[in-house]
Amino acid sequence: MALHLLKVCVGIDNIDHLARVQKQRRGRRKAHWHHTRMMPQRADDILDGGSIYWIIKGFVRLRQRIVDIDQMHLEEEGRYCRLSLDPVLVPTEPQARRPHQGWRYLEPADAPADLKAGRRGKGQALPAQLIAELKELGLL
pTM for the complete prediction? Predict the structure, then answer.
C-alpha cells in the first residue's frame, strides 16, 4: 500500500509560484529533486505509488509523485536524502494543516483527494484559495 509524505513548502505563495521555481531549478533535467535531511524508514512503501503533498500557506494544495529515493553524502553537508519527483503537479482539495519542520508520513486515508470539484460554467475551476475559504466556512 502506498504511503505519502507531507511537507511545508517554505517561501512559496501558490501553485503557480512552485511550478516556476521547480522549472527554474530543474533546468534541462526531466526529474525534479527535493533534498531533505532524513531518509524515510518506510521508503519501500513510499515508492509503491506514494506522493509528496505540499502545504502552501497553511493548506495542502497539491501533490507530486515520488519516483525514487536516494541517500546521498556530500563532504560539506553530510548525509541527506534526495527525493526524485515527477514534474507533474496535481492540485488537491485544500486541506488545512499546521506548519511543522521536516516531513511527516501521510496515510492514504488522510490524504486529500485530487481536485475535481468546483467546476463552474464553462469548465473553469474555482480558485484554490476560494475553495479553501469556503471549506473553512463549512460551505463546501
Answer: 0.79
